[in-house]
Amino acid sequence: MTFIPDSIRPRCQIEMVHWVKRTSLELIGQSGLGYSFDPLTENAVEHPYSRSVKMFNEVSSKLIFAQTFFLPFVYNIGSPKFRRWVVDTVPWKSLHDLRDIVDIMHGTACEIVEAKKKEYYERKEKEEMGLDVDEGKGRKGKDIISVLIKANMEADERDKLDDDELTGQIATLTFAAMDTTSSALARLLHLLSEHQDVQDKLRDEIQRAHAFKRSEGQFQSDEDYEDVEEGQLNYDQLMSLPFLDGVVRETLRLYPPAPTVLRETVQDVLLPFSKPLLSSDGKTYITEVVVPKGTKVFPGLHAANRNKDVWGQDAEEWKPERWVKAAESGQKVVSERIPGVYSHLMTFIGGGRACIGFKFAELEIKVTLCVLLSKFKFNLPKDKDISWRMTPVVSPSVDGGNQPKLPLIVTRV
């Protein structure tokens, strides 16, 4: 990492939310879009797309009333050109700010899609000429958008996505991967700063894994050796670290980045309760409830992950070792079946609308922790009160402020 200035090494205070957001965006940029937004250096000029993505939720929240009670009735009136004229003409600063943000995001998405199409045609032309299409490419062409465009180009005409759908996937990938993952990383760094014993144990496990790889000489290439020197392990080694796995899973259990989500029933359903509830008359017990079609439902992911009937009386406590002990004994961490897609948790939801990127998020979190903890030690500043705001994606703040901030004392190890 290069964000600690030489002038204040080896110990300084750093605002970590700024950096974990930049890191999350760059990781999804390279892995998902095959595009680099940020060199992750201290004085780098911020990419317009990066700035727009960070501002989107804040600006959009100022229009929540109009989005809820006005937009549903007028969004399809007239042609797109007419609707754009209305947006440009209405004297509403927040609306104009959102327009500018969306223009930048859409323009960048179109640029990425066109670049990927060009790469596809160049690759196809080389294949037809019998040339080596992979020579000098490295990881190029292996990102999600490149794979999607290749499949789309070769699909039957009836199954192809149009350009609007392709550019829409870029915004979906970016928002799904950035805010929640950066929130989880910030929470982990905060917890590890509070629990120095856990941080030291985790760092020891990571450093032992690096030392083992060096001593065993497990290098397939010079690039593998350079990766280890920079604090990187391969996928199998990363996923085999039991304490790292326990720390990540326990944090995602106790502190899901999104504490609740919004869903709407598509048909009338009879919803059973996990246990009977006493009704308001004090006599009758209710075991189920009718939920009509079209009902807005807010599943409590935060509450489900802390249910003492499932997780025991210590459900409210942060205990990474509960996962380590379960793995060592070969048993499940809980006996009840929880319908989440990830590790008996509702953090990534479940069913057909579950988060499709949960494995990528887990990998991203573990990679970032391995790189940071192998080089740095984190402590809480003594003069600042850090609390967490229960916003749609939870975020830390300092002394009750509204801006997401997590200042930590960072020391080289």
Question: Topology, pairings included?
Answer:
Blueprint: E1 11-15, H1 16-33, H2 48-61, H3 64-69, H4 71-74, H5 80-89, H6 93-128, H7 144-153, H8 163-194, H9 196-216, H10 222-229, H11 235-239, H12 242-254, E2 263-264, E3 269-278, E4 285-291, E5 296-297, H13 301-304, H14 308-311, H15 321-329, H16 358-373, E6 376-379, E7 386-389, E8 395-398, E9 407-412
Antiparallel strand pairs: 1-9, 2-5, 3-4, 6-9, 7-8
Helix pairs in contact: 1-8, 2-6, 6-7, 6-8, 8-12, 8-16, 12-15
Could you please describe the fold and organization of this structure?
It is a single chain. This protein has 413 residues and is mostly helical. Helices cover 51% and strands 11% of the residues. The protein has helices at residues 16-33, 48-61, 64-69, 71-74, 80-89, 93-128, 144-153, 163-194, 196-216, 222-229, 235-239, 242-254, 301-304, 308-311, 321-329, 358-373, and strands at residues 11-15, 263-264, 269-278, 285-291, 296-297, 376-379, 386-389, 395-398, 407-412. The strands form four sheets. It has a three-stranded antiparallel beta sheet. Helix 8 packs across helix 12 (242-254) and helix 12 (242-254) crosses helix 15. Residues 1-8 have low confidence and may be disordered.
